[in-house]
Predict the 3D structure of the following.
Amino acid sequence: MRKRIYSTIAIVIALASIGVATFLAAQKTASKRARATRKTPAAQGTTRRRPAANRNATPLGPVRPADPNRAPQNLVDDALYVNEEFFGTQASVARPYSVAFERVSSLLGKYPKDARLHLYASRLGERLSQFDKAAAEINEYADLRGRSPDALRRLADFYHHRARFADEVRTLQELAKAQTVPARTPIYKRAAELVRTRSLKEFRPADFFAELVAADPSNIQPVKDYVEELQLSKRYREALAVLASYQPKFPSELAYFLKTRAQILETTGDRRAAEEVYASTFDPNWLRAIAGDYYELLRRFGRYRIVRRALQERVRAGATDLDTVARLFSVFSYEGSYEQAARLLRELEDRRAGKKTQPAAQPQSSQPAAVASSSWSARELETVAELFASIGHYDQASRYLYTFYLVGGLQAGSDSREEALYRLFKVMLDAAGNPTRVAGGDLSFYRDVAEVDQHPGFLNGVLSLVLSGVSPSQEFANEEKAAAGYFNRAFAYRIFTSFKQE
């Protein structure tokens, strides 16, 4: 009985305390509202009233005139949101979609050229499953925006969400044409991906990139994108035709063209044609990356040793054509056998001169004979010089380049003279401290020049570059005492000075 009485008293006390706390909280809230009400007029008055010093102040900038076609922001906000009280605080809450759609539609009747209202109407219509209405409104929005890139992106995104992929591709095409050529590539790639993944038969993605190539024919990237798209579409013949057409226009991209052509032919199962891509355009002075791609392809096909052995047999049989020797030279250079590669070229020179080839075990003479120009064409002299320079044999490279310079003529300003002097100048600098026959003070070379000279009076003009008016014996004595690197640079400077004077 006592327990019941105690529990009843406790409940009564608890209820009384709750009531008192509620009353105090209500009083406190009422007092805050009263204070806020008293402060409001003063605050508003100070906001409206300006100090005397600022009344005549000049505005910071021009005020944009009101646009009669643009709905006031407060009306737009009222159409989309409503104010609600939460725990004594006013909060802006989004209206239900149907109500907001009706209000926005009402505003559109007054401001039909306000693009924002059409965008809001499209979004609300999509949420209300009125998709046709939403599509019409988003298209009206894009038209009012002048089909700007931003508006077209919104339109493309709308079609994507509605799974209207064909319309999305058309919009992306329009968007791409509104952009600069470099900015079109990612847009066309998105469109091409849609065409492939959604099986849209009415579009040809390769046509997108063909347009890019036509718009910027000096840029290699659209060509690469075009070829890649043709490969993805398995239109291999067209891809090969594009590569063959543009390869001459981009000589610096030879590695890309050869490798891509070979890959396409390998994909189609035509290995012989893939190998022929490199074999038919072989250049012994290819960049190492291109030569590496060629030999790696031969290794994959199991043809590397076969090709290598066939070249060796032709050389052993006494081949005198530079093409065969240069191909084997390239193989040895790829393998890192530089001495063996250099020996190939020296033996070729001996065979062309009618001399017996020295056995491989015997060391070569430190002063090889001058190049007999009658045995070599100007192009061959230039090629062999580049081959020697590529493996660091600058002495031999300088001999061939100087002979190439001689047979090219002394006519100032000619292209052949400029090319020969430039290559010889570059080799002299690359040689650094390595002795060369041209600049090393070996007078036997000057004697050998006479064997090359086939025109009376030609020799004096040539040697003036080297001797600079000093007697041959004095030149010999001076050069013997100096470092090889000094003479290389000195000779390079003479070439530079002579060319500058011309």
